[in-house]
Amino acid sequence: MPAASLLLAWLTVASPPPQAPTAPPKSVYALEDDAFVAQAQEDLRQLERYAQGLRRLSEEVKTSRALYLQKQSEPYTPDQKQRLLTTWAAFFDYFLSTEVIRQRYWDFVKEPLLTQPKKHAWGFLLTHGALTTELAHGLTFAELTGGRKQLEVLLDEPAPEYGLPARAFARFKEKVIHVGTTTQLLTGDGYKQQLRPLLVKAGALDAPRVPWVMQEMKLNSEVAKGLLIKRGPVLFAKAATDLTQDSAQRAFFPVQRAVAEWMGDTRVHRSGQPLISRAQVQALLERMEPGDILVARQNWYLSNIGLPGFWPHAELYVGTQQELAAYFDEDKDVKAWLATLEGKPQSFTGHLATAFPTKWAAYNQTDTHGDALRIIESISEGVSFTGPEHGMRVDYLGVMRPRLTRVDKARAILRAFGYQGRPYDFDFDFFSDQTLVCTELVWKSYAPSKELRGLSIPLVDVVGRRTLPANELVRLFDAEFGREDRQLDFVAFLDGREGEGLAKEADAAAFRYSYRRAKWDIAQE
After folding, report:
1. Which pTM was predicted?
2. Which one, of 182, 29, 213, 177, lies nearest residue 115 by Cα?
3. What are phi and psi of 316, to 5 degrees?
4. Which helix (H) or strand (E) segment is 34 a member of?
5. What does the alpha-carbon distance between residue 276 and residue 270 come to, in Å, rounded to a whole number?
6. Adjacent-strand bridge partners of 397
7. Measured between alpha carbons, how far is 148 from 69 in angstroms, rounded to an integer?
8. Which of 439, 513, 432, 447 is nearest to 477 (CA)?
9. How far is CA 132 from CA 95, 204, 367, in A?
10. What is the CA radius of gyration of the chain?
11. 308-362 pLDDT tens trace
12. Are 406 and 434 in contact (CB under 8 A)?
C-alpha cells in the first residue's frame, strides 16, 4: 500500500484525542525544527524508561501468575490485595505516561512528509513506538486479568492511596482493546517500512535510542499481533459488554476527561508556568528552617512513575550558608557534638566546608535565576543542590518540620551532603546507597542510628519491593497528627487550583487529606 494510503487509513480508523475543555494549548509541533528534535529525543528517553518499567512489571506479573489465576471462590487476603494493587498502580502509571507521549506526537500525520520531514519522521517514531509498547504490555495484562470478576472489581475500585481513580481498569481496557488502536498497529507497521528512507534522510536513524525504538517497535508488534491472533476474538467479545457498561458510568469525564487525552498538550502549554508564584515562594522562605522536609507535585511532570500516590516528590531544605550559620553555629548541643569530631571544628558550616570543600563551594553558588541554592533533592540528574525556583515553584507544595533537636538536624544535613552527586535511582532500590531516589535521600538522611534519634518512617511494599513513595510521608504526618509523640509538625501547604491557574494557602486539615487525592485527577479538590 502506498505511504499516502497508509496515512489515510491511519486517519480514518483512528479516534483523535478529544479536546480539553479549555482553550487549545500550544502544540509541540509549533517548535522550531531543532527545538522539536531536542524535545523528541528527550521524550524518547522517557519512553525508553517507561518501556523498561512495563517490562519489569510484566516479569513481576509472570512470577505472580498463580495469584492472578486464583479461584474466584477464594477471596484475596489483604497482603494479596496490596500486591495486586501496587502492581496495577505501577502499571497504570507507566501505561498512562506512555500514552501521554503518544498523544503528544499524534499530529505527525498533519506535518507534510515533504516539507516537514524531521517533524513527520520523529513524530511517527514517538507515536508508533508508544503505541506498540502499550499494546504489547497492555494486551498481555488484559488477557491475564480479563473476565476474572473478583480481580476486575478490585482493580476498578477507587484506591486513592495507590493513586488509582475509580474505573481506571475500565478506561485501560477501553484504550487497549479497541479496533481503532489495533488497526493503527497494522497500518503503522506497514508505514514504518515505507518511511525508512525518510528516517535516514532526516538523520533520525543515527540518533541516540532510535535503534532501540526501532527494535522495540518490531518486538512489541510481534507480541501484540501474536496475542491478537491467539486471543483477539475472545478479548474483543468480552470487552464489548464491559465497555458499553463502563462508558455509561464516567460521570466525571466532562470535567476530567481521560488523563492522557488532556495531559500531553497541556504539559507543553504549562511548561515553565507553575501554579505557585514566585511571590508565594519568597514569602514561604521566611518561614522555613534548615532540616524541613518538602513534598512537591507538578501536574504534568510527575516524577516517581511507578510509585503510587498524589505526592510524587520529596526534598530536604537546607537553607543558605547564612541560614545554616544562624541556625546551627551557636547552638550549644551542635558545638558539643562538633567537639567530639576529628579536628574539633569550631562551627557546623566550617565542618561542612572542610569535609566537603568542592560540594560546599558548589552549594554557595546561585542558580540560573540568581537565587541562592537552598535545597538538596534527588532528581533525574542525580542528588543535586537546587534553588527555590526548581524545588518550590511547582503546582503543590507541602512543608513539614521534624520535631528533632538542632544537632539531629545538623547530622541529617551532613549525611545529605555526603549523598550529593550520586545518581538517581530509577530502580527505587532502598538497600543500595550508590543511587538514590528522592524519598530515599530524605529517609536515609534522617534514618535513626546510635548518634541520631532521627525519624522512624516505615517502608512499604510496592510491587513486591520495599520502598517509600512520597505519599507515605504525608500519610505518616496524618496518622500522627495531634499526638504528643508525633514526629512532624505542619509548616505550610500551597494548594494548586488548576482551573484558576494559581495556588492558595491551605491549612493542616487540607494537607492531611491531600495524600488521598487521585494521582491523575485534573479536578483536584
Report:
1. 0.70
2. 29
3. -115, 120
4. helix 33-63
5. 12
6. 296, 494
7. 8
8. 513
9. 11, 19, 40
10. 25
11. 788 988 999 999 999 999 999 999 999 999 999 998 999 999 999 999 999 999 9
12. no
